[in-house]
Task: inverse folding
């Protein structure tokens, strides 16, 4: 099998890793438009904040024998001949082709947008940091997940930062209005000025113009206005394209020899913008193209969004915007403590957790994530899920109460049982467990939980020694 992968980001790199783990003799060629080796794009906000260096977010090197063409753009796919052509005229044949072209930043149609820097790649991050070294103030346009992370990162470097968002509250796709308000207040306490309902009419070299003619002075303007799947190559090749490249449960496109994964793929009408679904898709395609599991299918992903901003803890999952209905089919349990930056909300339907928002201190986030992921019935009084100890029936996040089936690392689908098995096999610290399971290598939010389980296992060994 000659496998060609277009895209060397987190989805493409993981696919190559999974394929070679199943077939060490697979002939794999990867084309990456970026000149850099693959890196963890999720952790770019840590680089921006100065809590991680660029080298710290690099992904593992591909296995020996994989041909990686960095800085090479594929310009055409000939499906009849089963070849791809690059910008430099190279023609590469394939038996199986996988599109992992990802997404590109959405640039708002306003005058002067070229004066701003989109926050998407490592090169963008380097440009932002270079300009931040001389700018007296920064403006971030876009109050979604990435915009909040960028604003917090720059503020952490001591810069005055203004975060502009067109909608009425921050992260309006994941949060309800009250949670967005509490998040804005938490960011304000960390040095970020938040302005919602802000209509940007122009970007200038010296700042940003708003509706009504107001000018916000800034030597640095960062764009975080969302992304769009990169589908041009697929469309020109005659593949079915909607918002993304349309795929079935096998992640095949309208051409059975061509697959698509990650942010460019549209499965069951949905395009995912997080890393966990991309990695789940990579596993399915690797199973199929190597023959390791011909029955492998992708059935969609249950998403948990984690904010990676220093001093701001946030997790959102499922149908967070639902409200209680007259028929009593939806129950909402909510708690707010704005002075401490705490907002907790559970959305319950048919005795199942279908949505949750956890902002600020959230000691039961692990338990709630497990309940949401499994889709099982809720234990005990729902209030006990927000306040540990209130209900004896509420499972605790302590490793001793956590079942082995509990998923600790959402990004890499690593359970407590798998961590235990690695520990019993000799992996006695975080680095060793990470090397074997990839836990903590996605968004990194599970690091404390993984370390806690390892520490608990070590303590149990000492007790029984």
Result:
């Amino acid at each position: 099998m000659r496998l060609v992968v277009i895209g060397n980001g987190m989805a493409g790199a993981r696919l190559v890793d999974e394929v070679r783990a199943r077939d060490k003799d697979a002939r794999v060629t990867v084309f990456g438009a970026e000149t850099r080796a693959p890196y963890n794009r999720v952790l770019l906000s840590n680089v921006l904040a100065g809590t991680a260096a660029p080298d710290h977010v690099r992904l593992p090197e591909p296995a020996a024998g994989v041909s990686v063409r960095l800085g090479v753009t594929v310009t055409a796919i000939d499906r009849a001949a089963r070849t791809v052509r690059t910008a430099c005229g190279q023609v590469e044949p394939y038996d199986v082709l996988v599109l992992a072209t990802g997404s590109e930043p959405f640039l708002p149609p306003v005058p002067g947008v070229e004066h701003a820097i989109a926050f998407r790649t490592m090169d963008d991050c380097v440009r932002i940091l270079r300009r931040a070294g001389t700018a007296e103030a920064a403006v971030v346009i876009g109050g979604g997940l990435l915009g909040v992370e960028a604003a917090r990162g720059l503020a952490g470097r001591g810069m005055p930062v203004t975060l502009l968002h067109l909608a009425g509250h921050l992260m309006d796709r994941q949060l309800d209005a009250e949670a967005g308000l509490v998040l804005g207040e938490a960011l304000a306490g960390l040095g970020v000025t938040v302005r919602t309902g802000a209509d940007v009419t122009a970007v200038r070299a010296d700042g940003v113009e708003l509706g009504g003619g107001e000018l916000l002075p800034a030597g640095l303007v960062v764009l975080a206005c969302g992304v769009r799947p990169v589908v041009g190559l697929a469309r020109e090749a005659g593949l079915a394209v909607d918002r993304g490249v349309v795929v079935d449960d096998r992640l095949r496109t309208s051409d059975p020899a061509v697959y698509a994964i990650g942010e460019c793929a549209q499965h069951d009408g949905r395009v995912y913008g997080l890393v966990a679904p991309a990695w789940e898709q990579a596993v399915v395609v690797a199973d199929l193209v190597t023959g390791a599991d011909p029955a492998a299918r992708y059935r969609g992903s249950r998403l948990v969004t984690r904010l990676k901003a220093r001093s701001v803890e946030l997790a959102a999952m499922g149908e967070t915007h639902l409200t209680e209905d007259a028929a009593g089919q939806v129950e909402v349990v909510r708690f707010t403590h704005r002075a401490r930056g705490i907002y907790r909300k559970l959305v319950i339907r048919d005795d199942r957790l279908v949505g949750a928002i956890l902002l600020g201190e959230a000691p039961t986030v692990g338990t709630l994530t497990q309940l949401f992921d499994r889709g099982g019935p809720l234990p005990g009084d729902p209030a006990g899920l927000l306040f540990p100890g209130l209900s004896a029936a509420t499972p605790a996040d302590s490793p001793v109460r956590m079942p082995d089936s509990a998923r600790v690392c959402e990004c890499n689908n690593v359970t407590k049982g798998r961590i235990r098995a690695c520990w019993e096999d000799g992996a006695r610290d975080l680095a060793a467990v990470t090397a074997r399971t990839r836990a903590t290598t996605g968004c990194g939010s599970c690091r404390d939980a993984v370390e806690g389980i390892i520490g608990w296992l070590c303590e149990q060994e000492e007790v029984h020694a």
